């Protein structure tokens, strides 16, 4: 079994506060194409964002994450049960799950036995869905500063799995047929403090701080504020989502 690489426990609180929310349209689509709505599994749930979003559509949601710190920050309605568990060891019964989701996390364990666990627990007619997003988009001027921060400053500090995100999961070999045509946009209204809070949640930031002894945000803070303008001003931040869906 591959070693669990915990990139987010030290940032769990910020992860819960500043991660953008996935579009309701995505949740509705997954609910509509699911042939039954008894049980869904949100794998690598983090602080439970996708589990909460899909909870209204399913009788029960099991939300798992290998990080106890992440699960400790998770919350959801009464029909969501949070557990500490790895993707390849869900603890779920054979052929018990109608929908399996992995939101912005498949790249961390795509090379493990996770896909065999998917085959074991999913019911005939069930749906598997994994989605990912890369860099945000605000305005061309803001995007240039953020992309410099992402690529030039943090480039050497991203874990190698990040490359799978950069290609929209095109380099992940799925052992089952995958639909590759769905596109959704994730949008949120943020001020400058909320944007910088989000930029501070990345795994590469923690590695940069440990290696350099400084916050990388301090290097770009003035440039970012200059192109943003009034820090209290709210702007739309957008991420294109790439969604991979399989039907069993």
UniProtKB/TrEMBL annotation:
GO annotation, biological process: methylation
CDD domains for this protein: AdoMet_MTases
Name used for this protein in its record: SAM-dependent methyltransferase
Signal peptide: none
UniProt xrefs under Gene3D superfamilies: Vaccinia Virus protein VP39
UniProt keyword annotation of Iron present: no
Keywords, alphabetical: Methyltransferase, Transferase
InterPro entries (alphabetical): Methyltransf_11, SAM-dependent_MTases_sf
Domain Methyltransferase type: 42-129
Molecular function terms, GO-annotated: S-adenosylmethionine-dependent methyltransferase activity
Organism: Paremcibacter congregatus
